[in-house]
């Protein structure tokens, strides 16, 4: 970088520059020298810029960021149509020429467009809505992100960010909260461990069919059991078939006894229970043990406590329907027998009438006195036996028809409940599969855009963990699992001959490399800090000690994410841990600086963009420069100075500043006599 044409004796560094040249150090060598370079340089720290009604389009925001001295930029789009006229916002609001302008503007100014942020209103890729999981909604979300991928490829960006809060789950019940060093460290609210609710989904329709709360009890019949835990059938033989199991009928001999209703849990028999079948309340602990027993016996068909809960509820309804069906069958059999007998009587009487020689005697026999009531209020009535029996036969036929309908309906309901039960799955299992498929599809799309547009650096999808209460994916360990599942799914899609994404000739190893390259994650340092709100204090613990423990957890998670090799983009923000804030690094209480330094020390080379716009666009970038002690370099001297020693350095100095600031600055109408712009 030759700057000699811009140096004159009026410049403060004129003679220092001459001294540098006399010492055989070229201006370019001076500019490139980086003695004592820290892990973080000014060029390493960029910022996110957004479009919107009050902000303008991304191109104008890019110009403003470059003028602030930013060296890397993330573009954040809004949903289609959410911007301000004439640019209505969204990735597709920027045509070929404007995309080229954004790319060239960055290139000319030696600035990197590192990433594109899909609209933050997209919160999951499962298609989850209030009514359940919707394929049309999922397709809309994927399409919106594909727009961002296209924009990223055109402006020479790499990462494409999307918020991830895939489905609701109780924090206290999450797998990562049940094991390891930080077991039980988090809860969304104090009573959550007792009242936490999980959800089940109909995998055929995507509809949420039930919520299972831990404090709700389900009542079940208590069946006769053998000592080794098998059911007993009506003949006293052991069976695994619940439909053949015999429930316990309470007799007078049982009054005062305590009957084992489950694994040592006793129920005392009272007189009012005599003559009834024994039913017992089942709590969450019961279903956890049931799941544990089932999984030991069926290691390849494991079930969760939620599934055991819904199984008990459905089986109760199935048994009720089957009971009604059996009852109607017995009624049906009795009616058929009675119908047969009546028909026989009718045939006999009609035959008698045909063959009768003494008509008067036959008529007297065929007619009888019926009617009246027990009080004798209604007078008796003479009726014809044949007509009377025919009416009875008609009533029986109507009853049989009703029983047909009722019995069939009960059978159908039992069969339908059985079928529904086979398609009910925990929301977690169902949604994780949909998330993995969505992110894998987007990873493949990013890969194809990289190849087709001949990009030197890959375009890749980077899900960003959103707020803790927004659901799965917001915890660092969930984010790791989400990325790893998506990578596995992408490998399957690329190598499975039956997949529409199959790549002929691609082996598993190559597919794994592509998946790792095109599916990563965004670490948001403030979103992770929001877990402090749900970090349970220990009894008698001071707030300061709680903060220190949380910072330890925070850095542990940074190390886990780094070890898992998933981080491909960083949003650098500070906060105080309770709400969603956007403070520059060092202005909150989170160990953001330690986290960034750890990642850089261990080889992280991806984008780091500040989103600390809460104190204004200038402090968004200058405060991180100061916090990290990032060096700046002058042409006149090979020694580096940190931004901290320059920022606000016109205060308490004997020499005049290099620039005019604040109220001393002239208006835009003021110019030098030479018309040279005043800077």
Please name the defining characteristics of this protein.
679 residues; alpha/beta; TIM Barrel; eight-stranded parallel β-sheet; three-stranded antiparallel β-sheet; 18 helices; 42% helix; elongated; disordered N terminus
Unreliable spans are: 1-12, 14-35, 634-638
Report the span from N to C terminus.
20 Å
Structural class: alpha/beta
% residues in beta strands: 5-15%
Query: What is the level 1 CATH name of the domain at 45-182 and 434-633?
Result: Alpha Beta
Indicate the overall shape. Answer: elongated
Mean pLDDT: 83
Rg over alpha carbons: 39 Å
Side-by-side strand order of the widest sheet: 18-6-3-2-1-21-20-19
Do you know the CATH topology of the domain at 45-182 and 434-633? TIM Barrel
The name of the CATH architecture of the domain at 45-182 and 434-633 is Alpha-Beta Barrel
**Largest β sheet strand count, sense and barrel closure:** 8 strands, parallel
Count the DSSP helices.
18
CATH superfamily label of the domain at 45-182 and 434-633: Divalent-metal-dependent TIM barrel enzymes
**DSSP summary, beta strand count:** 23
């Amino acid at each position: 970088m030759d700057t000699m044409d811009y140096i004159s004796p009026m410049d403060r560094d004129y003679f220092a520059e001459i001294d540098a040249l006399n010492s055989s150090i070229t201006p370019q060598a001076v500019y490139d020298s980086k003695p004592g370079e820290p892990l973080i340089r000014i060029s390493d720290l960029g910022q996110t810029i957004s479009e919107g009604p009050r902000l303008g389009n991304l191109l104008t925001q890019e110009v403003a960021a470059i003028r602030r001295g930013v060296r890397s930029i993330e573009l954040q789009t809004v949903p289609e149509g959410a911007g301000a006229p004439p640019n209505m916002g969204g990735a597709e609001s920027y045509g070929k020429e404007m995309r080229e302008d954004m790319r060239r503007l960055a290139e000319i100014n030696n600035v990197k467009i590192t990433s594109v942020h899909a609209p933050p209103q997209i919160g999951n890729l499962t298609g989850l809505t209030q009514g359940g999981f919707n394929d049309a909604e999922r397709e809309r979300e994927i399409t919106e992100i594909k727009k961002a991928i296209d924009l990223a490829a055109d402006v020479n960006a790499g990462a494409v960010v999307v918020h991830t809060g895939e489905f609701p789950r109780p924090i206290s019940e999450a797998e990562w909260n049940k094991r390891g060093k930080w077991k039980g460290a988090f809860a969304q609210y104090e009573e959550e461990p007792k009242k936490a609710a999980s959800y089940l989904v109909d995998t055929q329709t995507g509809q949420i069919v039930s919520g299972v709360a831990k404090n709700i009890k389900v009542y079940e019949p208590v069946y006769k059991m053998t000592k080794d835990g098998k059911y007993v059938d009506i003949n006293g033989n052991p069976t695994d078939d619940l439909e053949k199991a015999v429930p316990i009928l309470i007799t007078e001999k049982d009054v005062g006894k305590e009957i084992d209703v489950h694994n040592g849990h006793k129920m005392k028999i009272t007189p009012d229970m005599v003559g009834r079948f024994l039913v017992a309340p089942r709590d969450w602990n019961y279903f956890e043990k049931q799941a544990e027993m089932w999984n030991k016996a069926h290691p390849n068909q494991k079930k969760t406590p939620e599934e055991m809960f819904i199984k008990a509820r459905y089986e109760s309804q199935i048994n009720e329907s089957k009971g009604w069906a059996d009852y109607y069958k017995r009624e049906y059999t009795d009616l058929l027998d009675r119908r047969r007998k009546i028909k026989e009587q009718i045939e006999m009487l009609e035959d008698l009438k045909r063959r009768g020689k003494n008509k008067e005697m036959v008529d007297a026999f065929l007619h009888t006195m019926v009617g009246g009531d027990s009080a004798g209020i209604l007078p008796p009535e003479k009726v014809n036996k044949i007509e009377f029996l025919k009416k009875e036969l008609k009533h029986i036929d109507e009853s049989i028809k009703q029983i047909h309908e009722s019995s069939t309906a009960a059978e159908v309901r039992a069969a339908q409940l059985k079928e529904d039960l086979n398609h009910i799955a925990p929301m977690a299992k169902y949604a994780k599969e949909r998330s993995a498929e969505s992110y894998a599809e987007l990873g493949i799309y990013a890969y194809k855009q990289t190849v087709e547009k001949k990009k030197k650096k890959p375009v890749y999808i980077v899900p960003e963990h959103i707020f803790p209460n927004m659901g799965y994916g917001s915890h660092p360990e969930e984010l790791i699992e989400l990325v790893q599942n998506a990578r596995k799914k992408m490998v399957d899609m690329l190598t499975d001959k039956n997949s529409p994404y199959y790549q002929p000739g691609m082996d598993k190893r190559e597919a794994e490399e592509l998946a790792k390259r095109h599916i990563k994650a965004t670490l948001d340092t403030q979103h992770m800090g929001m877990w402090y709100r749900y970090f349970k204090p220990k009894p008698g613990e001071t707030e300061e000690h709680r903060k220190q423990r949380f910072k330890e957890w925070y850095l542990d998670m940074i190390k886990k994410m780094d070890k898992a090799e998933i981080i491909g983009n960083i949003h650098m923000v500070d906060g105080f841990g309770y709400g969603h804030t956007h403070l520059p690094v060092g202005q909150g209480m989170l160990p953001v600086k330690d986290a960034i330094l750890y990642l850089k020390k261990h080889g992280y080379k991806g984008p780091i963009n500040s989103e600390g716009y809460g104190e204004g666009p200038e402090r968004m970038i200058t405060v991180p420069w100061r916090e990290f002690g990032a060096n700046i370099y002058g042409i006149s001297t090979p020694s580096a100075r940190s931004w901290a020693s320059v920022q606000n350095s016109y205060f308490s100095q004997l020499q005049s500043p290099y620039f005019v600031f604040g109220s001393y600055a002239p208006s835009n109408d003021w110019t030098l006599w030479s018309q040279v712009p005043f800077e």
